[in-house]
Amino acid sequence: MKYLFTLTISLLLSGQVLAGAMTEGEAMPMPASAQLCAGCHGQQGQGVDPIGPRLAGLSAEYIQQQIKLFQTGQRQNPTMGPMAMTVQGEAIEQVSKYFSAQDVADVSIHVRGEKVGYDDPTERLVYQGDWDRIIPACVTCHGPSGIGGGQFPRLAGQQANYLKAQLLAWQTGSRKGDIDGVMGNIAAKLTASEIDALSQYFATLK
Amino acid sequence: MNFLKKALVASAWLTVVFAALFSYVTLAQATELQDEQAELVSVPKEAAREYLQPRSLAAIPEGEFGDKVRLGYKIFVDTQGLTGNQVGNELNCSNCHMNAGQQANASPLWAAYFAYPAYRKKNDKVNTYEERLQGCFTYSMNGIAPAKGSPELVALSAYSYWLGMSGLMDKYQVAGAVPELSDEELVKGGKRADFPVPEAIQKALTVDQRAKLPGKGFPAIDKPKLAYSPQRGKTVYGAHCQSCHGDNGQGLEIAGVYSLPPLWGENSFNWGAGMHRVNTAAYFIYENMPFAKGFQLSNQEAWDVAAYINDHQRPQDPRFKGDVQGLKDRYHKHQGYYGEQVSATVLGVEKPKGN
Question: Do A179 and B259 count as a contact with CB atoms less than 8 A apart?
Answer without folding.
Answer: no
